[in-house]
């Protein structure tokens, strides 16, 4: 490919395994009657938009591949295994088979290193891909016909603070963009995280009983709404500015750096996001949203 | 002290990072820890237990606590951080009946607890390392319990006491194993294994103070120091440093133990130690109980329970503890 590559969409695509469970695809062993329709139908609307794009690869950063020494990247061409959610094994036991764009993975690795980041390729063929990556990719592209690039979450938020985490995530986002542009490929970039992230600590007997589903507390809800207002207002820089407070007050999964990374890869859009859905899953706040460069005037 | 009576006849603290299992030859300290695991393994074998119960801080849970009950879990496990060290092929023998009994005992004390028995369930690196090195031929059936990310002292103590309930009810002679480093700050850049050392002098000093206490058999004193340990030398991944609360509650909240520090070394900046504690009739005494004890968990919120269910739980529970209710 000789043309300049580009990011054709950035997605906020959270990974509650409950959504896959509720869809009951053939790959998942547990089956459900229903559940979390608001979010699942939001994913359907998002897929319609994304499917209309001509893209080559999905690049995803997942909070559930947690690395304390730098950012790691899947480097094996094919993975086939069983993903069992360690938290909700009753809901998610998913047989996956996926391919990796190792060329782009290596390019992001090199760009990250040149930017001064600690980077590591993951070349162990026995490695089990984390369930966050599996869930977000399945809900974005259930056909599994696009190669992915999987990035880990460097836990700088734990070791330092949200500001340091964001500095690194912003540089990683820039490195990702440079690598995609140099590759000549058209990429969809996914931040696989929820917003507020305080779970319930008990589960109803029927997990898909929607009469039991609500946000854990109003504080979380208010913060989630504030972040959504910023998304819809095209104020992504403000999202990054308030990320330390947001992350702290809502024990948010944005501590993973995935949202900051994705916004940085898009060079901080100033146009409104398309927000497809907001809903809670076992008390956590989840937004499905997209930013599509070049389609700002839709 | 070897006895035919049921209960926890020994307790161990071991680190869960994979270097002693996969790469002991790369660093002198990693090799010493590997040797320490082997000494501890012999110590366990000598007291002839019929159960190893692992509490691993590397197995987080959200829905209460989960207890492994698959009778024969097997997998080829790869650590998400140190994947370059290689794969860990395992096959364990789990005492499913005990795991079920533990879950029941936990629920009887008000906790949310459930067993997990799924093919391919991801057993955490720490539990894999501990079982591979302490019980390599699966001679002793095991059980593993998770560490809830939101649980703090009261819930963890009740979880430990539930373990003691289950061990006693089943008539087991058990060894309690906590999988945790002491200080847990890893280097944030890759190092030459030969250059490994404790991340900071402060971490090292705190680690040595903990080991001094443990060598003196002062388990409850270390447990009482947990909040300070968390504040001083733990990266704040979870709400608190909990393994000593669980171990002390399971084995007995006192200082009457014979402690052996088999070795202590750096594991990529963290403090790794293999320590054993054996109950003895007379310990150092002089314990200070700064915080209330707690017998029953009443929950921190009634998110799903109806008022009636909550009231029923309180009626069944009997006396409450100020510590538990203060966390509500």
Q: Concise description?
A:
The complex is a heterodimer of chains A (298) and B (328). Chain A has 298 residues and is α/β, with parallel strands linked by helices. Chain A has one domain (6-291): LigB-like (Protocatechuate 4,5-dioxygenase, Chain B, 3-Layer(aba) Sandwich), CATH 3.40.830.10.
CATH class of chain B: Alpha Beta
Shape of chain A: globular
Question: Considering DSSP H and I runs of 4 or more, what fraction of the residues of chain B is helical?
Answer: 25-40%
Name the strands of the widest sheet of chain B in spatial order.
7-2-8-1-10-9
The appropriate CATH architecture of chain B is: 3-Layer(aba) Sandwich
Radius of gyration of chain A: 18 Å
Describe the protein in words.
The complex is a heterodimer of chains A (298) and B (328). Chain A is built from nine helices and ten strands. By secondary structure, chain A is an alpha/beta fold. In chain A, helix 6 packs across helix 9. Chain B is α/β, with parallel strands linked by helices and 328 residues long. In chain B, the strands form three sheets. Chain B has a six-stranded mixed beta sheet, sandwiched between helices. A two-stranded parallel sheet of chain B has the order 3-6. In chain B, strands 4-5 form a two-stranded antiparallel ribbon. The longest helix of chain B is centred in the N-terminal third of the chain and has 19 residues. The interface between A and B is large, with 39 and 41 residues.
Summarize the SSE layout with pairings.
The complex is a heterodimer of chains A (298) and B (328).
Chain A: E1 6-12, H1 17-23, H2 37-51, E2 57-67, E3 71-74, E4 78-84, E5 93-99, H3 102-114, E6 119-122, H4 131-140, E7 148-154, H5 156-159, H6 162-183, E8 186-191, H7 218-232, H8 236-249, H9 258-265, E9 274-281, E10 284-291
Chain B: E1 7-14, H1 19-22, H2 28-46, E2 51-61, E3 65-68, E4 74-77, E5 88-91, H3 96-108, E6 113-116, H4 125-134, E7 142-148, H5 153-169, E8 173-179, H6 201-215, H7 219-224, H8 226-233, H9 243-251, E9 257-267, E10 270-279, H10 307-317, H11 322-326
Parallel strand pairs in B: 1-8, 2-7, 2-8, 3-6
Antiparallel strand pairs in B: 1-10, 4-5, 9-10
């Amino acid at each position: 490919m000789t043309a300049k590559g580009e990011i054709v969409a950035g997605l906020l695509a959270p990974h509650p395994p409950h959504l896959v469970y509720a869809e009951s695809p053939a790959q998942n062993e547990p089956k459900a009657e229903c559940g979390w329709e608001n979010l699942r139908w939001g994913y359907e609307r998002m897929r319609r938009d994304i499917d209309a794009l001509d893209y080559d690869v999905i690049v995803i950063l997942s909070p559930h591949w947690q690395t304390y020494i730098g950012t790691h990247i899947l480097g094996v061409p094919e993975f086939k295994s069983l993903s069992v959610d360690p938290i909700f094994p009753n809901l998610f036991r998913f047989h996956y088979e996926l391919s990796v764009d190792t060329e782009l993975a290596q390019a992001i690795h090199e760009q990250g290193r040149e930017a001064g980041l600690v980077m590591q390729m993951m070349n162990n063929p026995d490695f089990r891909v984390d369930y966050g990556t599996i869930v977000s990719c399945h809900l974005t592209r259930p056909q599994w016909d696009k190669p992915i690039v999987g990035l880990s979450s460097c836990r700088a938020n734990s070791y330092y603070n949200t500001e340091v985490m964001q500095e690194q995530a912003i540089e990683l986002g820039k490195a990702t963009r440079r690598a995609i542009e140099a590759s000549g490929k058209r990429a969809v970039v996914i931040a696989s995280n929820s917003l507020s992230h305080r779970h319930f600590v008990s589960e109803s007997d029927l997990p898909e009983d929607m009469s039991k589903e609500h946000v854990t507390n109003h504080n979380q809800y208010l913060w989630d709404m504030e972040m959504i207002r910023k998304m819809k207002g095209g104020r992504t820089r403000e999202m990054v500015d308030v990320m330390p407070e947001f992350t702290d007050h809502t024990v948010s999964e944005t501590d993973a750096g995935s949202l900051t990374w994705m916004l940085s890869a898009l060079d901080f859009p100033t146009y409104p996001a398309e927000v497809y859905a907001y809903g809670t899953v076992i008390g956590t706040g989840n937004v499905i949203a997209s930013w599509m460069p070049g389609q700002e005037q839709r | 002290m070897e006895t035919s009576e049921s209960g926890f006849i020994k307790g161990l603290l071991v680190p869960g990072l994979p270097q002693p299992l996969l790469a002991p030859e790369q660093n002198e300290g990693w090799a010493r820890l590997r040797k320490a695991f082997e000494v501890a393994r012999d110590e366990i074998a000598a007291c002839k237990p019929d159960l190893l119960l692992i509490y691993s801080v590397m197995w987080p849970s959200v829905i209460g606590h989960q207890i492994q009950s698959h009778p024969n879990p097997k997998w080829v496990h790869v650590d998400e951080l140190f994947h370059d060290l290689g794969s860990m092929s395992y096959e364990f023998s789990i005492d499913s009946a005990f795991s079920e009994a533990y879950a029941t005992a936990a629920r009887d004390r008000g906790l949310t607890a459930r067993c997990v028995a799924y093919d391919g369930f991801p057993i955490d690196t720490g539990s894999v390392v501990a079982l591979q090195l302490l019980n390599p031929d699966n001679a002793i059936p095991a059980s593993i319990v998770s560490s809830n990310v939101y649980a703090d002292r009261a819930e963890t103590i009740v979880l430990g006491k539930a373990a003691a309930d289950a061990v006693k009810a089943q008539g087991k002679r058990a060894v309690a194993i906590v999988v945790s480093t002491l200080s847990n700050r890893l280097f944030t850049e890759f190092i030459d294994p030969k250059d490994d050392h404790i991340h900071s002098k402060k971490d090292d000093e705190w680690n040595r103070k903990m080991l001094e206490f443990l060598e003196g058999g002062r388990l409850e004193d270390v447990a009482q120091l947990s909040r300070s340990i968390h504040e001083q030398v733990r990266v704040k991944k979870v709400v608190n440093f909990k393994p000593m609360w669980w171990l002390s509650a399971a084995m007995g909240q006192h200082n009457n133990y014979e402690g052996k520090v088999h070795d202590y070394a750096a594991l990529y900046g963290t403090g790794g130690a293999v320590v054993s504690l054996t109950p003895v009739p007379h310990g150092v005494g002089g314990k200070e109980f700064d915080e209330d004890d707690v017998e029953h968990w009443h929950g921190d919120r009634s998110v799903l329970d109806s008022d009636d269910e909550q009231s029923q739980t309180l009626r069944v529970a009997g006396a409450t503890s100020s510590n538990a209710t203060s966390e509500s």
